[in-house]
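Tokens for chain A. Residues wanted.
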């Protein structure tokens, strides 16, 4: 009986074991099948899902090219910035890592709190400890961007300074940030890329500047952060080209200072200045200032009016009208023109002069800016053939777009002859019922200064990679091979523009040693489609020196106020031109004439002390009858006490700031800028002090202020 029971128990155990074994085998088969299904059937799909969720191939931005001024000064560059992150998982790897973390986490939290000053040390500690506890492999510690020096400082924080980044967990995510070394200078012209808005050189030359992006694998760390996967880079980005503009930072500084001063004085709605080099068509400076209540000065650069704003040009347009009339009818400059009581009536329109002028000459029509005189002549020459006037304007490049390098720039709004009537012809001849940008107008005036030859304005000369010129934009610059008009007409036009300054509407800026020629313009403003009396757009366009022009300048100020007389270009924009031309002349050595003359008897009893430029020594000692000295090209400290003359050679050690105390402005700027220094001058006379002591080490683009009296 006992034997049977034992046999039954053995059978039961055997059956149960077999059953258990079968179940295990079945589970194993199911597991293997599912594993096979995951790996071989659904594997590619699942891998792609995971890969696309946490690891992606992303574009790697190329280093953006730099933008330079004409002398190689940086106007815009890309600087590396860094976001500070942390990989807390490295502190869970072993006992040593855990121990280091416990020893230094409080010190690290304190360092982070003191550095960023946005959270307490306790908050930083809790943030890091929580990420470590949850096994996170990335934690963004702060969203603020660090520069290179700050990065070096942070890398020395407790815990971060104990070894390699892979052991300390520190992560620096690199971000390229655009930086303008000269701040707001030429802000709208140099431009920017921001919130999908692209303006200025940055926007128009984005294709050249941005380079070719690369590709790489990135691991998703959190919602907005991706970190490169080491060894996963597939293609290296190709840096962008460097762009060389034609802007001169010294002239730009002169222009911005003068325009800001005028805008503050006359409280205009906006103001524009353009400086163009006459023979090359290169834009040396552009400034646009408009009212901005949020700016400390009340004005800022928010729109490029110089290029994009088109409006009635006013009296500055009388010059192309006069050039067309002189070409068509060969009018003598002394021919009388009757302007009557200063009013011209045509149909339901009346055009007036600023005051009755009676009978004046053709030359005085421009010199005195007579609306009536211009209309009388226009009716005489072109009333029966308005299309001929249109043809002249096309020849003068006043009908088509300039195709300027900074886009967009509007095409002039000028009616075609088929739509003309006599009213349109006469009103457009004095700058009404048409729209032109300041850049379009200065280009025409520049041709007059350039012996009649029109040259397309440019603001970018070349694009380079290292020392190689990849694109030479001057090669595609349009230059007329024939002048806009005959030499006879050009001579008359130039004579009238000079007369505007010497005896006409801008005679308040005459008397320079170099000479100015130009034209004033005062146009009524259009508001809601109507011309409003008392609201004006004032401008002055001219060139200097008058005999051999080097620069053409446009100054315009919209709706000047603040002074009873501040309604005409004579009071508002012409003086700004003079201030700019004076300062450019002082800084451009090539514009200066050599000293000539004899020393007055009164100086024989005087005491003089002056630092003498090498170019002036021969004149000083031969023409003025002073004792001769050997010339070796050195500067001299010239001292004269009555008849006693003492000369001390001066030397300026290399790579140091020269001593310019005692020099005039011309010599001081020449000396300092030859050392690569940037100069800001205050006052008139000779230099009495300089902001950086003589003998100090120089560095490129160091700004030095000098005081004259």
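Reply:
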């Amino acid at each position: 009986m006992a034997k049977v029971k034992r046999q039954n128990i053995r059978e039961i155990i055997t059956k149960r074991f077999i059953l258990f074994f079968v179940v295990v085998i079945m589970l194993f088969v199911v597991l293997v099948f599912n594993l096979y299904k995951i790996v071989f059937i659904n594997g590619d799909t699942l891998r792609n899902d995971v890969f696309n969720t946490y690891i992606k191939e992303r574009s790697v931005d190329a280093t953006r090219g730099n933008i330079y001024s004409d002398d190689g000064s940086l106007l815009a560059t890309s600087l590396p910035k860094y976001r500070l992150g942390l990989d807390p998982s490295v502190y869970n790897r072993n006992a040593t890592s855990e121990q280091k973390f416990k020893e230094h986490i409080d010190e690290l939290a304190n360092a982070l709190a003191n550095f960023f000053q946005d959270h307490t040390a306790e908050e930083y500690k809790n943030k890091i400890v929580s990420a470590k506890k949850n096994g996170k492999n990335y934690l963004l510690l702060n969203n603020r961007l660090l520069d290179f020096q700050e990065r070096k400082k942070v890398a020395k924080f407790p815990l971060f300074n104990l070894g390699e980044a892979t052991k300390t967990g520190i992560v620096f995510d690199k971000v390229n940030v655009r930086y303008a070394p000269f701040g707001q200078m030429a802000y709208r012209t140099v431009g920017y890329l921001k919130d999908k808005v692209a303006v200025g050189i940055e926007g128009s030359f984005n294709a050249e500047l941005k380079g070719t992006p690369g590709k790489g694998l990135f691991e998703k760390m959190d919602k907005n952060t991706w970190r490169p996967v080491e060894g996963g880079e597939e293609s290296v980005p190709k840096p962008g080209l460097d762009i060389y503009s034609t802007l001169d930072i010294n002239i730009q500084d002169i222009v911005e200072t003068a325009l800001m001063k005028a805008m503050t004085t006359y409280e205009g709605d906006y103001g524009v200045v353009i400086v163009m080099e006459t023979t090359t068509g290169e834009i040396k400076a552009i400034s646009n200032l408009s009212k901005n209540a949020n700016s400390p000065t009340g004005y800022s650069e928010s729109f490029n009016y110089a290029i994009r704003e088109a409006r009635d040009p006013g009296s500055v347009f009388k010059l192309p009208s006069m050039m067309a009339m002189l070409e068509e009818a060969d009018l003598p400059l002394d021919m009388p023109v009757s302007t009557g009581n200063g009013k011209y009536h045509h149909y339901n329109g009346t055009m007036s002069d600023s005051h009755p002028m009676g009978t004046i000459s053709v030359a005085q029509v421009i010199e005195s800016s007579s609306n009536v005189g211009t209309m009388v002549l226009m009716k005489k020459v072109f009333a029966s053939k308005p299309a001929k006037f249109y043809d002249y304007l096309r020849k003068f490049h006043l009908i088509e777009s300039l195709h300027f390098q900074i886009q967009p720039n509007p095409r002039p709004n000028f009616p075609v002859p088929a739509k003309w009537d006599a009213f349109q012809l006469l009103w457009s001849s004095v700058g009404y019922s048409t729209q032109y940008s300041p850049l379009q107008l200065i280009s025409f005036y520049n041709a007059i200064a350039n012996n009649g030859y029109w040259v397309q304005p440019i603001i970018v000369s070349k694009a380079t990679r290292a020392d190689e010129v990849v694109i030479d934009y001057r090669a595609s610059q349009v230059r007329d091979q024939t002048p806009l008009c005959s030499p006879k007409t050009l001579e008359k036009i130039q004579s009238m523009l000079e007369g505007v300054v010497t005896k006409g509407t801008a005679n308040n800026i005459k008397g320079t040693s170099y000479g100015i020629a130009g034209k004033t313009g005062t146009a009524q403003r259009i508001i809601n489609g109507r011309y409003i009396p008392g609201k004006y757009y004032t401008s002055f366009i001219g060139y200097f020196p008058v005999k051999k022009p080097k620069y053409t300048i446009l100054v315009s100020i919209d709706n000047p106020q603040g002074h009873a007389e501040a309604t005409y270009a004579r009071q508002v924009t012409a003086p700004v031109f003079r201030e700019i031309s004076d300062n450019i002349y002082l800084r451009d050595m090539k514009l200066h004439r050599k000293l000539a003359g004899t020393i007055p008897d009164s100086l024989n009893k005087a005491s003089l002390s002056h630092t003498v430029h090498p170019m002036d020594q021969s004149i000083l000692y031969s023409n003025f009858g002073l004792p001769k000295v050997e010339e070796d090209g050195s500067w001299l400290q010239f001292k004269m006490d009555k008849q006693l003359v003492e000369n001390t050679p001066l030397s300026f050690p290399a790579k140091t700031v020269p001593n310019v105390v005692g020099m005039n402005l011309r010599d001081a700027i020449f000396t300092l800028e030859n050392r690569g220094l940037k100069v800001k001058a205050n006052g008139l006379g000779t230099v009495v002090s300089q902001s950086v002591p003589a003998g100090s080490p120089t560095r490129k683009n160091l700004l030095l202020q000098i005081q004259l009296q």
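The chain is about 35% helix and 25% strand. The longest strand covers residues 530-544.
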